[in-house]
Design goal:
Order of helices and strands of chain A: HHHHH
CATH topology of chain A: 3 helical TM bundles of succinate and fumarate reductases
Largest sheet of chain A: none
Structural class of chain B: mainly alpha
CATH architecture of chain B: Up-down Bundle
CATH superfamily of chain B: Fumarate reductase/succinate dehydrogenase, transmembrane subunit
CATH class of chain B: Mainly Alpha
Strand content of chain A: under 5%
CATH architecture of chain A: Up-down Bundle
Radius of gyration of chain B: 21 Å
CATH superfamily of chain A: Fumarate reductase/succinate dehydrogenase, transmembrane subunit
Oligomer: heterodimer
Number of domains of chain A: 1
Largest interface: A-B, 33 and 30 residues
Helix content of chain A: over 70%
CATH class of chain A: Mainly Alpha
Shape of chain B: elongated
Order of helices and strands of chain B: HHHH
Number of helices of chain A: 5
Distance between the termini of chain A: 58 Å
């Protein structure tokens, strides 16, 4: 590596996704402040948590949309946070499979949540 | 630097390493920093309960009844109460982190004070929402 390239490598991080990760973590965090407070408020204001009440609540279009946004932001933020923890504490050969597995688990959860809300709000299945 | 270290660190190693957790004396702001990560991980695990709850609701009344029995068991109720506290702590501590991202509050005295504020706000919000959640957590239908 010549001097020019070495200087470039020192300035630019080798991981092109690193700044994206940092920004996404903040974007999802900011979204979760109102969404998280909304979710707690909506949940705790329900008269009961029985099947009929909960499904009627999720069947309202705006509530379904907010719930989907909340759950997706939770999983997005969780995936980013867990990734950093794995980078810090899981080393060697275990790192790549652990990171990949947790990423897949978050994607699976995001799909399960979307499918569930769709079934409750729109029906079908 | 030395007054923060429990052991003379650099002298015991051939090469300079970044001092890791165990060589530092535990101070208030460090505990808060660790708690942010721990509460975040706890909430990641807790999100499984949210997913399970939604999936059960989508599968129908019988699956939901099974989930309700599980959710009203004492251990899960305790987990939910803990998740509520973790939620508020992580939210307020996260806002403090974003203030730091904006370059605000790095002064040592300010960092201590903002940390204390986070703990107090999280405690107040937790008490208020636990009171609201009481009927679900302690006397569920």
């Amino acid at each position: 590596m010549n001097r020019q390239a070495a200087r470039g490598a020192a300035i630019a991080p080798p991981d092109p996704h690193a700044t994206g990760h940092w920004r996404n973590q903040r974007v999802s965090a900011i979204a979760l402040v109102p969404l998280g407070i909304w979710f707690l408020y909506a949940l705790l204001m329900l008269p009961t948590l029985d099947y009929a009440t909960v499904t009627a609540w999720i069947a309202e279009p705006l509530q379904a949309l907010l719930l989907l946004l909340f759950a997706w932001c939770v999983l997005w933020h969780s995936a980013l946070g867990v990734q950093v923890v794995v980078e810090d504490y899981v080393g060697g050969r275990l790192y790549a499979p652990t990171a990949r597995l947790l990423q897949i688990a978050h994607w699976a959860a995001a799909l399960a949540v979307a499918y569930s809300i769709w079934v409750i709000a729109v029906g079908g299945a | 630097m030395h007054r923060f270290l429990k052991v003379p660190y650099l002298s015991s190693h051939d090469r300079p390493l970044s001092p890791h957790l165990q060589v530092f004396r535990l101070v208030f702001v460090m505990v808060l920093s660790g708690m942010h990560r721990i509460s975040g991980l706890a909430l990641s695990a807790g999100s499984l309960l949210l997913i399970g709850w939604l999936v059960a609701a989508a599968r129908g009344p019988e699956a939901y009844a099974t989930a309700t029995r599980y959710f009203s068991s004492v251990p899960v109720r305790l987990v939910l109460a803990a998740a509520l506290i973790a939620f508020w702590y992580h939210l307020f501590a996260g806002l403090r982190h974003m203030a730091w991202d904006a370059g605000l509050g790095f002064d040592k005295a300010v960092a201590r004070k903002s940390g204390l504020t986070v703990v107090v706000l999280a405690a107040l919000a937790s008490i208020m929402t636990l009171a609201l959640a009481w009927r679900f957590l302690v006397a569920p239908s």
